[in-house]
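Follow-up to my earlier ticket, as requested here are the two runs.
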Amino acid sequence: MKEQKQKNIFPMDFQWGVATSAFQLEGSPAADWATWDPVLAGNPAITGHYGRFREDLKLLKELGVNAYRFSIEWSRIQPREDTWDHGAISHYQEIIDILRGYNIEPMITLHHFTNPRWFAERYPWHRSKSIEKFLRFTEMMVSTLKGVRYWITFNEPYVILIGGYLEGCTPPGEQDVPHSLLALKNIFTCHGKAYDIIHRYVPDAQVSIAHNMSVFAPWKKWNPLDRLLKKSANYFYNHSIITAFQTGIFIVKFPFSRAVEIEVPIKGKLDFFGVNYYTRIHLRFNPFKKMGVELRHLDIDGHGLTNIGWEVHPRGLAKVLRYASRLNLPIMITENGIASHDSQEKVKYMKKHIDVIEKCLRDGLNIRGYFYWTLIDNYEWLLGFDARFGLYHVDFETLKRSPTAAASYYTYLIQSRSSL
């Protein structure tokens, strides 16, 4: 009897999926990122997914997943401000139809980091007109695409703000705190209004964001400045967004600065909460670094570092899921994965994190889905083509897809821990 209970801890309707991003698989000549990173000049189509999507969707059926999170590449839909590409819209509708034919639930991300170049040049996120332009795109997608209940408005909005407006390493390449606060207000205003638009067209829709959450720790526990950085980072990165969805007010406080309150129309505008989780970050006070913060990754627990130097820290997933449970909403783990050339490392990573989810379910957390990042090797933004997150290996010369041991292990996990 106890063994049967162990097997059935995952809910009957638990979503076992994988997550991808359109640009990272297929590129787009009209996107701002297409000219941002010079490495893309040599491989603009990346994995060739735009022309091979039917072949790649068959991999989902092979895996045995029942859900698939993917994004719409805005710059393909609206390559120019006054132009809608209906062929591109039909392309994404065909993806939805194929998924439905496989009994796989589609989850669409409307914005996954990239923007049309015209938008980036004329209406970047710190300008108020950005709201109108994004909502116009949202309404076009929701009114046109059929067969989608699950919608993510923005993937990792804080990463957009930190990379694009504080560090300046991603578009629009600014290092401007006031502009970052304007962009935060505009992006989350878009979410609140998009939530209403989606529910107007799809009354039973489930709408969220995919929020990147990390565990933070001081570089030296004895150093009060390191401990202060850890506390500030944990509040801003993990908790401020939760508070904002509860109150409609962002309280933004960067280290060694005064708090700023920003009102946004998002109170209660979530149907579930999407969590992207990868790692733990150690923080060190360094007066010679931007904002006095230096980020480090340490292999404290002995699980190793990933191919891109991130610490593998499975128990941190339980911590951030408990943070997310403050919202009293269903939780979806919308991304979780490891960059590694060694598929056995992917197997170990996956098993350890699924074990954590199982324990959290037994503790009463309302977790409704897990999406592994990612289906096939892709372009990993500023890290290029060699991060290797995929369950399927991609040879970027021939574009051949090959299953890794992690793909068959994920199939085994789904079958062994699913009640379906």
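Run two:
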Amino acid sequence: MANMRIGFSKMDITPPVGTELGGYAGYRPCSGVHDMLHCRAVVLEQDNVRYALVQLELMCVDEALFERIAQAVEPLGIAKERLIVCAIHSHAAPQGSVPGEGPLDLVNNSCIVNREAFTDYMLSVVAAAAAACKDAAENLEAFQVRAARGDRPQVGSERHTGARPGGDLTVIQCRTESGRSLILYNFPCHPTVLSADNLLVSADCAGGVEEKLDADMAVFLNGAAGDISTRFTRRESSFAECARMRDVTVEAVQGLLAGLPYAAPEPLTGIHTRITLQAKQVLTEEAARNQLEETTARWQQAVSDGADAGTVRILKSYVEGAGVNLEFAHTLSGIRQLHLPVTAFRFCGLNFVTIPGELFSTLQPEGVSVIGYANGYYRYVCDENAYEAGYYEALAAIIARGEGEKLVDEILRILQMPDADAAKT
């Protein structure tokens, strides 16, 4: 039986007024704060080897930010290969990136206007993550655990059709010997109840769950949410609607845990590797401009014809995707291969895999909980249908058609490998 101890802590990472918010197109400096943003850290020690999970209430985590945090926590005995840093993907929070750094700097950071101030904020996030990990590592305790997987809360649907999406709710609760309680919960959700017009900092519908649950800390791990949206499930774009969806999530988490007994934790096993995928071949600037003009004309015609709001919003998303493609004609040119960092692990009898981007729920491997927006941001990982239909996500993707299926095949192969607490490159 492995000797296992756990510690957890959180720190404030609320940005100053004027910090640029991510997720939506255009320059969106925040004008105030509705609810504070946090960094949550969980440190697990197994047979004197330390692992860490850091959750940031940000829009994404790019590789540059991950590397900065990895360097900051290394003195705590946490190796980069045993670190996961993930984001909740709120569109009312800044993106997690370091301008001027990382393999996708031009792709992810060309939108940042005030680069110096944004970098200063990112460095404060790194400091907060390191402080949370240090506090967690200094307060390790023996623990018991209970876990379950069941129906996901209905706070989102397939973003183009409104159909019920795939993906489960996975919940793990740890209770330390001193009585402290930690809940980790994972399901696919796109926290976009608040529209682009909102300029107040918020965790959106992913916020406030911790205060409602009977736990000292609750960590939301977003899932395979690339094709999921609140477009068809939200009643309005408001903070009151965020609270309603929060309560739906709380009820689902509590229902899954009800009556479950605690037991000693099973040993953690896993492997960290990189999976090489082909980058999308970008259009020429002329072709990208033509595509933008065509999609814009279709959207404007729908508005003129009085089409329903859902149809207009979907056509508008195609315009946004075509706009991203025009940007890619400048920023993605010359990139042929992408090397995605992936961690597959087993904990509490459940399989998990991290994805550095927005995996479509249709690609989620059966019986595997996906932790998305983790250790990098390679944008959308779409299925073949998205490319065939010309969806916004396929237009905005940097991964070539068919590579999403290849990624999943490789993940399934990795999960079948005999053990490993080893790093592969």
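The only thing I checked on run two: The chain has ten helices and 19 strands. Let me know what else you need.
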